[in-house]
Amino acid sequence: MFNRLSALVVATIVLAMAVPQAKAQCATGSVAECCAITVGANTTLGRAVLNDLGLNPSTVPGSVGIVCQSGSACSGRLCCTTTGTITSPIGDVAVAAGCSPSPA
User: Fold this and answer.
1) Where is the secretion signal located (predicted)?
2) Which terminus of the chain has fewer CB atoms gathered within 10 Å of its CB, N or C?
3) Per-residue pLDDT tens for 5-15?
4) What's the CA gap between 13 and 37, in Å, rounded?
5) How far apart are CA 7 and CA 38, in angstroms?
6) pTM strictly above 0.85
7) Domain tally for the chain?
């Protein structure tokens, strides 16, 4: 069951990242990110990611992106102030913090 669920999640992420769209325009100091998962910074998962990045969850506004690609074009673009990589049981995962929706 776990292997099927893992395969489904990976396939969904790959398909979501492959959909071409126009590139994001982010303000200076932030990076356009395409993330498969977006959670609030104050959620359990959001706080865990921020802690792994060495950031204080109480000082990071916005959302946290998980499984991200910088500068990619996608439909759910985010503008994020911090990017990094965390190590998980399935390997290294690109993440982003301080994210807000990208202007169209």
Assistant:
1) 1-24
2) N
3) 333 333 334 33
4) 9
5) 20
6) no
7) 1
**What is the three-class DSSP state of 16?**
helix
Sequence-distant (6+) residues with CB within 8 A of 55 are: 82, 97
Backbone angles phi, psi at 16, to 5 degrees: -65, -35
Stretch (H or E) spanning 28: none
Displacement of CA 93 from its chain's centroid (Å): 9
**Four-point Cα dihedral 87, 57, 69, 6, nearest 10:** 50
Containing structural domain, residue 72: 2-101
Residue pLDDT, tens place only, 34-82: 889 999 998 999 999 999 888 988 888 889 999 988 766 787 788 888 8
> 3-class SS at 26?
coil
C-alpha–C-alpha distance, residues 104 and 48, integer Å = 30
Query: Which pLDDT band, with edges at 50, 70 and 90, does 91 fall under?
Result: confident
